[in-house]
Every structure is written in structure tokens, then in C-alpha cells.
């Protein structure tokens, strides 16, 4: 069956965000694209839009994770089940036709790329432990206490949830991820995130050693990398992280990068080196398409 790219967005700001990324995916991919959206009076400007209905009582952040982790069921309920699909966060931008090659990578039955952080480095972003150190075991302790999942490798590199591919057989993985994520909403010690429950899912199912997507399909650019949490909200363009050695134009031409993922609201930040480079690459492509 033909593969499918899927965005899933909740709330009007995220609908606006996906409308930035969507034209580039449309430009470069030969495959069908669907947008699953919730809690927005504005409908995404696209021909395949599915309205999802998260439960009442969830805030918008929780509702967005409810939609994302239930995506396999939502697609099946709307006639798009049984197909291999690739989920994309709304801040993931396609840079070339090489994006379609993501479906040539074997799915096991669900496949993620690696994050920057190990599980202990990610800990204080996932639970309210109050640690100031760069690394601590409190997420692994919470996973064991609350879910019975024993992660024995403190240096295990997290899966990044911004891009993943799933085969039809992935429903059991998605269902467990969904149930763990929804349960975490009722655990005050846990922050509202899906990445920690994704790690718990991987280890619960014995998938922690599964092959990962090549990084070219989820090249992470975190504008807040290395910036303390309390300084991030008011950070100026000059304070944002920069990788001087990264030449995006060359990386796209050589096939080293197909998708770029702007973590922490880096998309659209004009004056920041990496967004300016992407905009310079993509604007001519869209102009030619028009």
C-alpha cells in the first residue's frame, strides 16, 4: 500500500505552524499527505484533513500528545489504516526529494531517529526532580516505580519523537505509548511530555536495541541547545545555538540531510543562521513550483 506522511497538530498556533512546513513537504514528496488536527477553529489549508476529538479535561498540551500517540487508531478510523506512515512534528521541514527514501528504511515495526540526549541527560526535562546537574537517574527511577520498566543503561540514547515511521504491525507499540502517556498526565511528578513515555514503551517491549532512522531524516537543530532553562524564554537571536561548521546547502546537495527538525521554536526566527539558511534554500523552490 502507498505510504503516507502525517502531521498531527492541536490548537490554532500549531495549525499555523504546520502551514509553514506543509508546502515544502508537498513540493518534494510524491506521496499522499494527511493532516490530523484538533481544537482549532481554522482548518489547515490542505485537501486531506482529519478532525480528532481529544477528551474534555485535557489541556492543549496534553491533548496534542493524546492525538499524536493515538495516531495509528485515528488513521484507521478514517480509512487510512494498514498503510506504512511517517509522522512529522509541525517543525520538521522537508529539504529535498530524498525525504521519500525514509520509507525504504526497514520498520521494526516502528522506527525513530536518535535524540541528542541520553536518558539520564533527559531526566530533568521529563520529571520534576529539581536536579540542576546535567545528568541524573530520576527518570529511570520514575519509570520503574510508576510503570515497572527497568532501564539498566544510563547512557541509552533517547528516541526523538519528532519523526517516526510505522508499519501496520506497529499498533501495539502505539497503543502502549498512548496508554503510558495518558497515565502520566495523572502523575504529578511527571512533566507533560511524550518522549519519556516513549522510552518506557521501548524498554517495556524490548525494542531499545532496535535499528534507528538515519539522522538525515531527522537532523535536529535546537536553538536553545546549551542554554539554561530559565534563560530560554527571553533569549535573543544572538544567544541562540549555532553550529558554524554546518553548511545546509552542501548537506542537502550531498544527501546528508533530507529533513531538518527545528526543536524549541527555532522555525521562522529570522536572523538566526540556521533558519536563514533553510529559508534561502526553500523559498526559491516554492517560487519555482508556483
Topology:
Blueprint lengths: L3 E7 L1 H17 L3 E7 L10 E3 L8 H10 L1 H7 L7 E4 L3 E3 L15 E9 H8 L11 H10 L9 E10 L4 H14 L10 H10 L14 E4 L6 H4 L15 H6 L5 E5 L9 H17 L1
Parallel strand pairs: 1-2, 1-4, 2-3, 8-9
Antiparallel strand pairs: 4-7, 5-9, 6-7
Helix pairs in contact: 2-6, 6-7
Q: How is this structure best described in words?
A:
- The radius of gyration is 18 Å and the shape is globular.
- The protein is built from ten helices and nine strands.
- It has helices spanning 12-28, 60-69, 71-77, 119-126, 138-147, 171-184, 195-204, 229-232, 248-253, 273-289; strands at residues 4-10, 32-38, 49-51, 85-88, 92-94, 110-118, 157-166, 219-222, 259-263.
- It is of the alpha/beta class and 290 residues long.
- A six-stranded mixed β-sheet has the order 3-2-1-4-7-6, sandwiched between helices.
- Helix 1 links the parallel strand 1 (4-10) and strand 2 (32-38).
- It is 36% helix and 18% strand.
Estimated radius of gyration: 18 Å
The parts where pLDDT drops under 50 for at least 5 residues are: none
Strand order of the largest sheet: 3-2-1-4-7-6
Helix-strand makeup class: alpha/beta
The major pleated sheet works out as: 6 strands, mixed
What is the typical, i.e. mean, pLDDT? 94
Total helical elements = 10
Report strand %.
15-25%
Strands, count = 9
Order of helices and strands: EHEEHHEEEHHEHHEHHEH
Distance between the termini: 30 Å
Amino acid at each position: 500500500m502507498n505510504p503516507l506522511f502525517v502531521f498531527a497538530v492541536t490548537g490554532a498556533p500549531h495549525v499555523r505552524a504546520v502551514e509553514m512546513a506543509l508546502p515544502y513537504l508537498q513540493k518534494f514528496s510524491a506521496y499522499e499527505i494527511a493532516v490530523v488536527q484538533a481544537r482549532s477553529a481554522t482548518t489547515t489549508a490542505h485537501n486531506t484533513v482529519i478532525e480528532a476529538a481529544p477528551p474534555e479535561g485535557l489541556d492543549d498540551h496534553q491533548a496534542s500528545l493524546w492525538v499524536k500517540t493515538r495516531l495509528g487508531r485515528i488513521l484507521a478510523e478514517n480509512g487510512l489504516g494498514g498503510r506504512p506512515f511517517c509522522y512529522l512534528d509541525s517543525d520538521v521541514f522537508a529539504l529535498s526529494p530524498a525525504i521519500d527514501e525514509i520509507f525504504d528504511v526497514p520498520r521494526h515495526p516502528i522506527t525513530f531517529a536518535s535524540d541528542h540526549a541520553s536518558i539520564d541527560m533527559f531526566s530533568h526535562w521529563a520529571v520534576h526532580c529539581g536536579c540542576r546537574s546535567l545528568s541524573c537517574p530520576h527518570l529511570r527511577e520514575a519509570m520503574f516505580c510508576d510503570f515497572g520498566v527497568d532501564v539498566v543503561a544510563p547512557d541509552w540514547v533517547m528516541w526523538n519523537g519528532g519523526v517516526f515511521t510505522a508499519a501496520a504491525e506497529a499498533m501495539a507499540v502505539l497503543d502502549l505509548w498512548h496508554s503510558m502517556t495518558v497515565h502520566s498526565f495523572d502523575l504529578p511528578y511527571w512533566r507533560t511530555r511524550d518522549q519519556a513515555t516513549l522510552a518506557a514503551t521501548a524498554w517495556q517491549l524490548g525494542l531499545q536495541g532496535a535499528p534507528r532512522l538515519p539522522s538525515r531524516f531527522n537532523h535536529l537543530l535546537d536553538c536553545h541547545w546549551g542554554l539554561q532553562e530559565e534563560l530560554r524564554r527571553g533569549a535573543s537571536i544572538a544567544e541562540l545555538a549555532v553550529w558554524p561548521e554546518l553548511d545546509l546547502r552542501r548537506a542537502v546537495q550531498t544527501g546528508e540531510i533530507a529533513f531538518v527538525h527545528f526543536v524549541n521554536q527555532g522555525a521562522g526566527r529570522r536572523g538566526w543562521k540556521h533558519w536563514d539558511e533553510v529559508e534561502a534554500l526553500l523559498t526559491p523552490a516554492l517560487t519555482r513550483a508556483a
